[in-house]
Amino acid sequence: MSALNALSAVRPYALRNDFSLWRCYALFFAIIVYAWDSSPTPDHLGVAEIATGALMMIAIGWAGAGQALLFPFQGAFWQLAGWMLLIYGFSIPLIGGVAAGHDIGLIIRDLIPFLYLLLPLFVTPLLMKRPSFIVPLTAAVAAAGIIFALRLIVPSFMEHGRVGFSALPNEDPLYLANAPTVLFTGILCMALAARQMMKAGLSSIGGVGLFAFPALACFLAMAAAMQRATIGLAAMGLAFLWSVAFVRNPLRALIPLALVCMGLLILYEPVEGLMRQLVLKMSRVGFNNRVEEASLVFSMLQDSSWTVLFGCGWGQTVSSPAVGDVTVNYTHTMFTAFWLKSGLIGLALTGAYLGGLAACLWRMVWRYPVMAAALAVPCLIDVTLYASYKSLDFGLVLMLIPLWTGQQELLRRTASVG
């Protein structure tokens, strides 16, 4: 009888463990489906979007939703701040948007990215119980960046029948190159290729190419979309990583630097042409009216102290000068968007949440500098310059921050026990 009791106690526990495993698989496949046939900010729901949403719901499940509401009191600062932001976002801005008569579709289009922003809150407790999934999920996020880049550049290369700068597409209607995962993958793979060079030199040409070709695909996609800030900050991130490598091992750090210089000399004409186009774009459009857009948001909030503190609610639109005065439901700077829709209260909570994740990134710099730089650069751009903070990509990049910080803490505890 005691054996039967023991079996009945063990079996539900095993099933719970199995279900947590399936939740991890669901998250993994959601990322791949999303990258394969969706886009960062789709205008309409299709099969890929519905499948991605269903898989994400399975991955989060009732357990993830419950942990998001209860666990932060025992968790890190960013979890508590995220919990407060979640409660606030589904109360005051939601009530304000409905009361103001904003379009329900636009309210939903605001709430979905809001949940993407809080993705770490929902999945981190699950994934920290399954640390073996951290690397595969990181690879899935990187694969999403590669897929987006290839979806942009490969059709154009096939159409022109050649590979090169002149065959790059002239437009990016789905904003694939803007996806944070593209920048994340470009920095990560380029840094890993350089590290492989430093370890084994040219004797490991296969390993170098394994990382270098995806990185080049990502940077070609950014060049095709003429992403000035993306290319510039990516170069700064890689320069930072090279300086870290130089401090640790000056002689070996010269190997990737020499190869990069050789590559720039060989590709001087197309690279010089790209730089000329970037400078020309800068002279023509400047900062794309980002300052004017922020000024417009500020003027819209001056109607009352209520709107200053609590915003205009989800679903609020703006005739943005950054897109030719077209009426849209976003701004290009994340903080102005959250101030407009959730007020200073929502802005402060968002800042606290992202600040807590930034503190995790800072701790990560000392053990995983490559991962820290690859995550920090797209986060910085999406918070300040691009509207990609509304994409699932942004949530996926944020998701990796506490996972790798937790991995670092796990390794530290293991080492102290050993």
What does this protein structure show overall?
This protein is mainly alpha-helical. It is 77% helix and 1% strand. Strands 1-2 form a two-stranded antiparallel sheet. Helix 7 packs antiparallel against helix 17 (392-417) and helix 13 packs across helix 15 (334-365). It starts with a helix and ends with a helix.
Strand order of the largest sheet: 1-2
Please give the largest β-sheet: 2 strands, antiparallel
- What's the number of helices? 17
Helix share of residues?
over 70%
Shape: globular
> Segments where pLDDT lies below 50 for 5+ residues?
1-16, 410-418
* Overall number of strands: 2
Distance between the termini: 40 Å
The helix/strand class is mainly alpha
Strand-residue proportion: under 5%
Mean pLDDT: 83
Query: How do the helices and strands follow one another from N- to C-terminus?
Result: HHHHHHHHHHHHHHEEHHH
> What is the radius of gyration computed over CA atoms, rounded to a whole number of angstroms?
23 Å
